[in-house]
Amino acid sequence: MSKTLQEILAGVPVISVTGNTGIEPTGIEFDSRRVGAGSLFVAQKGTQVDGHQFIPKVIEMGASAILCEDLPAELTDGVTYIHVADSARTMGLLAANFYDNPSAKLKLVGVTGTNGKTSTVTLLFKLFRQLGYRVGLLSTVQNQIDDDVIPSTHTTPDSVKINELLAEMVRRGCTHCFMEVSSHAVAQERIAGLLFSGGIFTNITHDHLDFHKTFDNYIKAKKGFFDQLPKHAFALVNIDDRRGGVMVQNTAARKETYSLQTIATFKGKLLADSLFGLQMEIDGKEVWFKLIGKFNAYNLLGVYGAALLLGEDEEQVLMALSAITPPPGRFEQVVSADAIVGIVDYAHTPDALQNVLETINELREGDQQVITVVGCGGNRDATKRPEMARIAGELSTRVILTSDNPRNEEPMAILAQMEVGISPVDYKKMKVIEDRRAAIRYAVSLAQPHDIILVAGKGHETYQEIKGVKHHFDDREELKEAFDVR
Ligand SMILES: CC(=O)N[C@H]1[C@@H](OP(=O)(O)OP(=O)(O)OC[C@H]2O[C@@H](n3ccc(=O)[nH]c3=O)[C@H](O)[C@@H]2O)O[C@H](CO)[C@@H](O)[C@@H]1O[C@H](C)C(=O)N[C@@H](C)C(=O)N[C@H](CCC(=O)O)C(=O)O
Ligand SMILES: Nc1ncnc2c1ncn2[C@@H]1O[C@H](COP(=O)(O)OP(=O)(O)OP(=O)(O)O)[C@@H](O)[C@H]1O
Ligand SMILES: N[C@H](CCC[C@H](N)C(=O)O)C(=O)O
Ligand SMILES: [Mg+2]
């Protein structure tokens, strides 16, 4: 699938091009460490380093073309230079051209929001497979093309990877792809050049202020996704979130809404919620689903709406959806032989933790204790730490604060920042145990039959990242083992 630089640059705004555009780049690389003979290297200014500093190096390594925002003072003969205003954005446009615009050849639906993206895209993926389609998925948990699972490193991959995966989906006959669109991805132009058929907004609450700095910037990043949707696409928003309206203020797409509270294109009602599932009324029909919690009622309604907007039949959609199970690590239950209920959930934001604990409290019977094991990731938004501890303290009988992925931070320093959030009245309930395995075992030692242990924050993750090293760690396995040795 070789293409000349001229073909790859078709329709792409540039400041200048110097050199031969008849060359055929072997690939597009933004990391010097991956450059090979004939690569087109994209120099980007990152949060850590300026990729422009690697230009001499990649030329030595055989790069045939350089895309940059700052043109070097001296140009090397035989290398083509493309000078642009925004490298990241241009890379998205080039990647789309390089891979033959795969997003235009299938129905691509993006999902954004603080919580619920993975749940929503996974439900859509499973639903459309059940309806008989070949489908692609790009998500935090995994990427998938039909039956083939491809490990994922980000919630939203970089623009080259996205287009490569979409092209493979098209090649294998996929008609739909459902992808998560993180706020980082919008801000870093990872979705530039993609032609979406639809976008979904789940909600927006506190997260990622380390990266976006202010809540307003965070809202703007998410809104940026809807701003770039084309006219033929739909923009489906959860109107019960107060920012739902803002998201679609400037979109060219067709605006549609879903709600559990007010008039909307897709209106649902939560009838019952239990540890076995929830019952909803949607379009006058009462349906049981296998997912738990009011937040999943929202996810299901969003999925239902999107499926109808994609032309699917109402009854078939509801029938298929009612049989679908939740994604791994989302309210995943591990029950002990003596009926202690362990729940592993990826709640890693204050809002998600509050939702999960409220759900658990609504579902528990009078004397059942709720024991929460929770931590916060290192090198991520530190302002959520005291908040998450406060919520855990208020909504649990006992709380064990422990490590999540400390990354390059000191685990005890993260825990100290969490601890200050626990209100004095809840202080007695709390214990700090840095080692996550020991924390889970301690929680199990406290539990009586029928008590509920929530292990929050890592969900499906199968590792714990400490000082740059990923060690195998799985909350579900840990709970099972702790139950066994009890
Ligand atoms: C904060 C952030 O998003 N960082 C991403 C960003 O890195 P960066 O801007 O820090 O890059 P940098 O290290 O300064 O390097 C600048 C440029 O020089 C290049 N470089 C660098 C070193 C070198 O030797 N050679 C070289 O060419 C880099 O490839 C890059 O193009 O660009 C990199 C390349 O695309 C990403 O891998 C990296 O994701 C890091 C690993 C990350 O942890 N990202 C997280 C925060 C993230 O993106 N999360 C969101 C969602 C989370 C959610 O919704 O909850 C996600 O979509 O996953
Ligand atoms: N619609 C929702 N509203 C609020 N909380 C939710 C919703 N759906 C799921 N949650 C909670 O948030 C957690 C994360 O859900 P999910 O993985 O679907 O979110 P995400 O947006 O993909 O997160 P990430 O930003 O890490 O990719 C779940 O484990 C659950 O606790
Ligand atoms: N996509 C989120 C995941 C957080 C998961 C939590 N376990 C952590 O490590 O902080 C992030 O990168 O911020
Ligand atoms: Mg996700």
TrEMBL record:
<keyword id="KW-0067">ATP-binding</keyword>
<dbReference type="GO" id="GO:0008360">
    <property type="term" value="P:regulation of cell shape"/>
</dbReference>
<dbReference type="InterPro" id="IPR005761">
    <property type="entry name" value="UDP-N-AcMur-Glu-dNH2Pim_ligase"/>
</dbReference>
<feature type="domain" description="Mur ligase N-terminal catalytic">
    <location>
        <begin position="26"/>
        <end position="99"/>
    </location>
</feature>
<dbReference type="GO" id="GO:0005524">
    <property type="term" value="F:ATP binding"/>
</dbReference>
<comment type="pathway">
    <text>Cell wall biogenesis; peptidoglycan biosynthesis.</text>
</comment>
<feature type="binding site">
    <location>
        <position position="188"/>
    </location>
    <ligand>
        <name>UDP-N-acetyl-alpha-D-muramoyl-L-alanyl-D-glutamate</name>
    </ligand>
</feature>
<dbReference type="InterPro" id="IPR004101">
    <property type="entry name" value="Mur_ligase_C"/>
</dbReference>
<keyword id="KW-0436">Ligase</keyword>
<feature type="domain" description="Mur ligase C-terminal">
    <location>
        <begin position="329"/>
        <end position="459"/>
    </location>
</feature>
<feature type="binding site">
    <location>
        <begin position="113"/>
        <end position="119"/>
    </location>
    <ligand>
        <name>ATP</name>
    </ligand>
</feature>
<feature type="short sequence motif" description="Meso-diaminopimelate recognition motif">
    <location>
        <begin position="404"/>
        <end position="407"/>
    </location>
</feature>
<feature type="binding site">
    <location>
        <position position="182"/>
    </location>
    <ligand>
        <name>UDP-N-acetyl-alpha-D-muramoyl-L-alanyl-D-glutamate</name>
    </ligand>
</feature>
<dbReference type="GO" id="GO:0009252">
    <property type="term" value="P:peptidoglycan biosynthetic process"/>
</dbReference>
<dbReference type="Pfam" id="PF08245">
    <property type="entry name" value="Mur_ligase_M"/>
</dbReference>
<keyword id="KW-0132">Cell division</keyword>
<dbReference type="Pfam" id="PF02875">
    <property type="entry name" value="Mur_ligase_C"/>
</dbReference>
<comment type="function">
    <text>Catalyzes the addition of meso-diaminopimelic acid to the nucleotide precursor UDP-N-acetylmuramoyl-L-alanyl-D-glutamate (UMAG) in the biosynthesis of bacterial cell-wall peptidoglycan.</text>
</comment>
<dbReference type="InterPro" id="IPR036615">
    <property type="entry name" value="Mur_ligase_C_dom_sf"/>
</dbReference>
<dbReference type="InterPro" id="IPR036565">
    <property type="entry name" value="Mur-like_cat_sf"/>
</dbReference>
<dbReference type="InterPro" id="IPR035911">
    <property type="entry name" value="MurE/MurF_N"/>
</dbReference>
<feature type="domain" description="Mur ligase central">
    <location>
        <begin position="111"/>
        <end position="306"/>
    </location>
</feature>
<dbReference type="InterPro" id="IPR013221">
    <property type="entry name" value="Mur_ligase_cen"/>
</dbReference>
<protein>
    <recommendedName>
        <fullName>UDP-N-acetylmuramoyl-L-alanyl-D-glutamate--2,6-diaminopimelate ligase</fullName>
        <ecNumber>6.3.2.13</ecNumber>
    </recommendedName>
</protein>
<keyword id="KW-0573">Peptidoglycan synthesis</keyword>
<feature type="binding site">
    <location>
        <begin position="155"/>
        <end position="156"/>
    </location>
    <ligand>
        <name>UDP-N-acetyl-alpha-D-muramoyl-L-alanyl-D-glutamate</name>
    </ligand>
</feature>
<dbReference type="GO" id="GO:0008765">
    <property type="term" value="F:UDP-N-acetylmuramoylalanyl-D-glutamate-2,6-diaminopimelate ligase activity"/>
</dbReference>
<dbReference type="Pfam" id="PF01225">
    <property type="entry name" value="Mur_ligase"/>
</dbReference>
<comment type="similarity">
    <text>Belongs to the MurCDEF family. MurE subfamily.</text>
</comment>
<keyword id="KW-0131">Cell cycle</keyword>
<feature type="binding site">
    <location>
        <position position="190"/>
    </location>
    <ligand>
        <name>UDP-N-acetyl-alpha-D-muramoyl-L-alanyl-D-glutamate</name>
    </ligand>
</feature>
<feature type="modified residue" description="N6-carboxylysine">
    <location>
        <position position="222"/>
    </location>
</feature>
<keyword id="KW-0547">Nucleotide-binding</keyword>
<keyword id="KW-0133">Cell shape</keyword>
<keyword id="KW-0963">Cytoplasm</keyword>
<dbReference type="GO" id="GO:0000287">
    <property type="term" value="F:magnesium ion binding"/>
</dbReference>
<feature type="binding site">
    <location>
        <position position="380"/>
    </location>
    <ligand>
        <name>meso-2,6-diaminopimelate</name>
    </ligand>
</feature>
<dbReference type="GO" id="GO:0005737">
    <property type="term" value="C:cytoplasm"/>
</dbReference>
<dbReference type="GO" id="GO:0051301">
    <property type="term" value="P:cell division"/>
</dbReference>
<keyword id="KW-0961">Cell wall biogenesis/degradation</keyword>
<feature type="binding site">
    <location>
        <position position="32"/>
    </location>
    <ligand>
        <name>UDP-N-acetyl-alpha-D-muramoyl-L-alanyl-D-glutamate</name>
    </ligand>
</feature>
<feature type="binding site">
    <location>
        <begin position="404"/>
        <end position="407"/>
    </location>
    <ligand>
        <name>meso-2,6-diaminopimelate</name>
    </ligand>
</feature>
